[in-house]
# Entry
Amino acid sequence: MAAIGLVRAAGGVVWRPVGGRVEVCLVHRPRYDDWSLPKGKLDSHEHPLAAAVREVVEETGVRGQPQLRLPSVRYWRNGLPKVVDYWAMRALSESEFAPNSEVDGVRWLSPSAAARLVTYPHDAQVLRHFAGLPRATCVLALVRHALAGKRGTWSGPDAARPLDATGRAQAHALAPLLALGEPRRLVSASVRRCRQTVDPLAALVDLPIEVDSRFDEPRPGQDPTAVVAGAAARLRELAASGTAAVVCSQGKVIPPALAALAGIGSAKTWATPKGSGWLLAFAGPHLIAADRLTPGT
# Structure
């Protein structure tokens, strides 16, 4: 539960490649006469990731693709505790910046120059953390299908078991969150509940759903270890392509596949509730960061 009076905000370290180097974006706010990272308060019931993308667009005119979570910042403002969640974002598009009463200047600088210019030490700390990370080359969202009732109450083949009413609501709540990553491919395990989980996203971003049985749970007679290894290998292939994608799979596949990709933890460490998932950042085929994606939090 959030602390009483806690002010929530979100923003991003937005970066773009320039030759062989990277530039990040800072904003100047005339009200405070400061240079800072683009950020702003969450709207009512807004997800922090959605707020981060929205605030970056509003303050800079840049559409950023969220890639990985950066350290949150906590401080006091006007007698209230404030927490700002940050994500590293790659700039996908830029509209012409129009100075306004909130932000009257935007500058693109190297991370080290930006860390020297920002007014607040906590912004400099976030920038230094960003500068020490490998550059993400691809982002995948890996989600577990939404709720589909209980196996014992479904009389047909388990692969045909559909989402229940709660699951359908979960799928619709997931869609706008997953769309923030600007996916260009949607991939689903073959079972009906997985395909239905990404149906609302497919309608939102106007993309077809590719069915890939390598993300199915092990069938009778299959070696579970081999199935998990195949799913992890497929995720590496998708990441190596450099094309942002959303993948929907099942509960006996996702946790052990993530443990294999990360090289740390067990399947229990990577437990993924139904209707939730992960934002995975890769450098080539190598997983460099994983951030939980849960609608409403």
